[in-house]
From TrEMBL:
Its main location: cytoplasm. The keyword Glycoprotein does not apply. It catalyses: Exonucleolytic cleavage in either 5'- to 3'- or 3'- to 5'-direction to yield nucleoside 5'-phosphates. GO terms for cellular component: cytosol; exodeoxyribonuclease VII complex. Heterooligomer composed of large and small subunits. It comes from Sphingorhabdus wooponensis. This is Exodeoxyribonuclease 7 small subunit. Signal peptide: none annotated.
């Protein structure tokens, strides 16, 4: 049974996405299955991006002082 994407944590979603990418790149899935895999992969990608954006916002909140001014520097890669 396939786990609902919304119930996955970041690591589970990333592993599932990596598995889908492998299957699609290998060409081992027929067309209809490939389309379904691509759709699920897109859902997983969106979930991972949302979780990363949430983590980034939390980190930014941690490095800001009570008045909103930065208390340190944090560099994030281009997304």
């Amino acid at each position: 049974m396939t786990q609902d994407v919304a119930d996955m944590n970041f690591e589970q979603a990333l592993l599932a996405l990596e598995d889908i990418v492998h299957k699609l790149e290998s060409g081992e899935a027929p067309l209809d299955e490939s389309i379904a895999l691509y759709e699920r992969g897109n859902e997983l990608r969106a979930l991972c991006q949302q979780r990363l954006d949430t983590a980034k916002a939390r980190i930014e909140a941690i490095v800001q002082g009570p008045d909103g001014s930065p208390t340190g520097t944090t560099t994030f890669g281009a997304g």
